[in-house]
Write a structure and sequence with these properties.
Blueprint (H helix, E strand, L loop, with lengths): L4 H6 L2 H52 L17 E5 L4 E4 L3 E4 L14 H8 L23 E9 L2 E13 L5 E9 L1 H53 L14 H50 L6 H25 L7 E4 H10 L8 E4 L5 E4 L1 H18 L4 E8 L2 E8 L33 H11 L3 E4 L4 E7 L3
Parallel strand pairs: 8-10
Antiparallel strand pairs: 1-2, 1-6, 3-4, 4-5, 5-6, 7-9, 10-11, 11-13, 12-13
């Protein structure tokens, strides 16, 4: 079934990396852009407030000096619309050409002359003290009581947004007034709009660049992975385990992946070759006793007086032992873990020796008490038995087994006075189906599995099996806690 090309494209690592990087950059840029806009707007608003406050303070200073309302020097309405009102909201002065205003104490834009009623009303509340406690002193401007707000002003029919500064002042007549002066927000709005539009245009372009660069970089970085995938697919299709994936010259994770893959292929090739040799050798070893047994049975069937019963029994026993060895090797190759039982190795050695007292060479044992190991009793018995059989087979007059404790291990040494193992063959004898030609023949020896089984079992128990000078086999197993 063919996959959807679009789904395949966006399901790739390159697409995911590009989309992820673009999303992260987009979130960062949006957050940074909003922060820039907020800071810019705040800064420009502060500047606008400052202009409005300067204009309001200038007019308030004139009011404090008792300049008549009609002679106040007011800024132009288009720059700083000004409105002077009493604390009760009555307009005393207003800039020329100001048609409407919002955001101040009153929306009136026509000045009203003071009247006797206004004076009475203004002084009723503070008749005793001369002026209110919160009002600035007579003839002074309140420097620390400036308030700001937003509103609109219509000048010559044009309405715009403004920031208004409100400054309280008391004139010489003990009249408290509030001077409202505005500063246009057109500059602030224009600057913010320009930056915002630039961000709206530049952000998509920048995101496209980020996505494209991430796509190209990821594609270049993952190109060796595609080569590894193709080669592994070719190995799977051809079943040729001699092939290897290309290793990039870099020292990154992909290079380590390629090296690990080649090591895995090499190990797999070795394992498959070993398995093939094992099957071939097993078939060869099984064919000999089966053919011999069949011949003897056929002869016995035709001539009962010529039937070699002892030989048939011997071939059957040999065939049974070979089948048992093959079964144990199969279980070891399948990863069978040994048990966790505590085993008295001294008693196990004596038990195996007692089963071989009829051998042609006597066995002497030197073993102290209290030497215990953990593992499978049956498998360790097979190891001791195989070492004893091997030693009796090659010894001239004696076999010696000695046990000792050494550095947290129990060491079992099986030695004989035979010709020994040549130094060049001391590792090869532990391979499966290997027999030294000058050591034994097929008839008086085994199938070449005993030592291989012994070493595999030792490794499964966390130990080692080696051969030293002469014909001394040394088995090391971790001592039981």
């Amino acid at each position: 079934m063919t996959r959807n090309p679009v789904r395949r494209l966006f399901g790739s690592v390159r697409a995911k990396a590009a989309l992820g990087a673009t999303a992260v950059v987009a979130v960062a840029l949006v957050a940074a852009g909003l922060s820039v806009l907020l800071v810019l707007r705040s800064h420009l608003t502060e500047q606008t407030d400052l202009r409005a406050e300067v204009a309001a303070q200038g007019v308030a200073s004139q009011v404090a000096l008792d300049v008549p309302y009609g002679k106040l020097h007011l800024p132009g309405s288009d720059e700083n619309p000004v409105q002077v009102v009493t604390e009760h909201g009555r307009v005393r002065a207003v800039s020329d050409d100001l048609d409407a205003v919002t955001g101040t104490a009153t929306t009136e834009v026509r000045p009203r002359a003071p009247s006797a009623d206004d004076d009475d009303g203004d002084h009723d509340d503070d008749h005793d003290s001369g002026h209110g406690s919160d009002d600035p002193p007579r003839g002074e401007v309140s420097r620390d009581r400036t308030h700001f707000g937003s509103g609109t002003a219509t000048v010559d029919g044009d309405t715009a947004d403004y920031r208004f500064a409100a400054v309280e002042v008391t004139n010489g007549s003990d009249e408290t007034l509030v001077v409202y002066a505005g500063a246009p927000l057109a500059t602030e709005q224009s600057a913010v709009a320009t930056v915002r539009d630039a961000m709206l245009v530049g952000l998509p372009v920048l995101l496209l660049v980020v996505a494209g660069v991430t796509w190209l970089v990821t594609r270049r970085a993952l190109r060796p992975v595609e080569g590894i995938r193709r080669e592994m697919a070719a190995v799977t299709a051809s079943e040729d385990l001699t092939r290897r994936v290309p290793e990039p010259r870099s020292h990154d994770e992909i290079a380590r992946l390629a090296r690990t893959t080649n090591e895995t292929l090499a190990a797999l090739e070795t394992s498959v070759d070993r398995q093939r040799r094992f099957v071939a050798d097993a078939s060869h070893e099984l064919r000999s006793p089966i053919a011999s047994l069949r011949t003897q049975l056929e002869v016995g069937s035709a001539h009962p007086e010529l039937l070699d019963v002892d030989g048939a029994v011997a071939d059957t026993v040999r065939l049974q032992q070979l089948a048992a060895d093959l079964l144990l090797l199969a279980r070891l190759d399948a990863g069978e873990r040994p048990g966790e039982g505590r085993i008295d190795l001294r008693a196990l050695v004596y038990e195996e020796v007692s089963q071989r007292r009829t051998g042609r060479v006597p066995v002497t044992v030197h073993a102290p008490d209290g030497l215990e190991v953990a593992g499978s009793r049956g498998q360790l018995a097979r190891v001791i038995g195989n070492l004893l059989d091997n030693a009796q087979r090659h010894a001239r007059t004696a076999v010696t087994v000695s046990l000792r404790a050494e550095a947290g291990c129990v060491v079992t040494e099986v030695a004989d006075d035979g010709p020994g193992v040549p130094a060049a063959e001391r590792e090869r004898i532990f391979e499966r189906f290997v027999r030294l030609d000058d050591a034994r023949t097929r008839d008086d020896g085994g199938a070449g599995l005993g030592l291989a089984i012994a070493r595999d079992v030792a490794h499964r128990h966390g130990g080692t099996l080696t051969v030293g000078d002469g014909a001394a086999f040394v088995l090391r197993l971790p001592a039981s806690a």
